[in-house]
Specification:
The complex is a heterodimer of chains A (about 100) and B (about 220). With about 100 residues, chain A is α+β, with helices and mostly antiparallel strands. In chain A, a hairpin with a 2-residue loop joins strand 2 (about 60-70) and strand 3 (about 70-80). Chain A has six helices and three strands. Chain B is about 80% helix and about 0% strand. Chain B is globular. The chains are: A alpha+beta (about 100), B mainly alpha (about 220).
Chain lengths: ~100, ~220
């Protein structure tokens, strides 16, 4: 088996999924983002986004905080240190993988 | 998802702060306040009492004006932006991973050095009268346009390039017609304020037209 293909075993499958990668990329850039922002930016349905957020929360990659802004309920999401490290590792893996196949 | 797409998402998230034009409007108002204040400084007599009042006014404008505008800005964000396109809290700039960070830092450092060099030489030039009033004002306009160009480059916001170009043109025009250096500089500062307010207002109108506030019932997860 060639090196690029062997490298395929090393990547984080949880982050690799496009929808979750989009969420993690956004949260990597900011301190916190609410559900509305993630909904608009990802273009997912509420249910779909909620499912992906739960998966990421279960993995310890993100933290979900339910608050109120005035009388309006707000769901705030932020990347945990584990999630941050996982995303950085994924970016490094992606870079190496792209370089290895070119 | 390709690496480029990830970088595009990062950049789009970074420029969310200026999606509604409110920051430009706030900056423009602040520039107009500063212009008005400097104009008063030219018009009032220069006795000790006036100088004291001037310094006091300066602290009020910069301190309270900035604080007040920041509060209004936050309230408008709460009312207009967050219900429409969501809330985002940014991390400290030093911890954000920019695409091509090293290249950006190098270009930023070079531009900063050029900026400081230009500023210092233009000031020295003005002091020594080595530059004509027109050339000084043109240079001043270009210096005022540079931060907008840098912002446009850092966040990929094209309207900042246009705004920067308009301010540079304003510098050239004022340089041609100004009869005194101080009034010329005030015209440029005021022009910068007006242009950023207009740009922000157009952006805000477009933002409000293209987005709608979500119903209270559909908010949250």
């Amino acid at each position: 088996v060639s090196n690029p293909l062997r490298n395929l075993d090393d990547f984080d499958r949880l982050i690799h999924e496009p929808a979750r990668l989009m969420i993690v990329t956004i949260l990597y850039t900011v301190d916190k983002a609410d559900f509305t922002y993630l909904l608009r930016e990802t273009g997912m349905t509420r249910g779909n986004l909620s499912t992906h957020l739960t998966r990421l929360e279960e993995a310890g990659y993100i933290q979900i905080e339910k608050t109120f802004r005035g009388k309006i309920p707000q769901t705030l999401c932020s990347l945990t240190e584990t999630g941050r490290r996982a995303f950085e590792a994924y970016r490094r893996w992606l870079k190496q993988f792209v370089e290895s196949i070119l | 998802m390709a690496k480029n797409e990830m970088e595009e998402i990062i950049q789009r998230t970074q420029r969310y702060w200026c999606v509604d034009g409110l920051a430009e409007i706030g900056f423009g108002i602040f520039m107009l306040l500063v212009t008005l204040f400097l104009l008063l400084n030219i018009l009032i007599p220069h006795d000790p009492t006036s100088i004291f009042l001037f310094l006091l006014g300066y602290l009020v404008i910069v301190g309270l004006g900035g604080f007040g505008l920041n509060n209004i800005y936050r309230q408008l964000k709460e009312r207009i932006t967050y219900p429409r396109t969501g809330y985002v809290a940014y991390r400290r700039p030093s911890t954000i991973a920019y695409p091509n960070r090293h290249a950006s830092r190098l270009v930023g450092t070079i531009l900063l050095l050029v900026f400081i060099f230009t500023l210092v030489t233009s000031l020295i030039g003005a002091l020594q009268n080595s530059l004509s009033i027109g050339a000084n004002l043109t240079l001043f306009g270009i210096i005022m346009a540079m931060p907008l160009y840098l912002l446009g480059n850092a966040y990929g916001v094209r309207r900042f390039y246009l705004l920067g170009a308009l301010i540079a043109v304003l510098g050239v025009v004022v340089g041609r017609i100004a009869f005194s250096e101080s009034m010329g500089m005030l015209s440029i500062l005021g022009g910068v304020g007006l242009l950023t307010i207009i740009s922000g207002a157009f952006t805000l109108m477009h933002y409000k037209r293209t987005t709608r506030s979500l119903d209270d019932s559909s908010r949250g997860e």
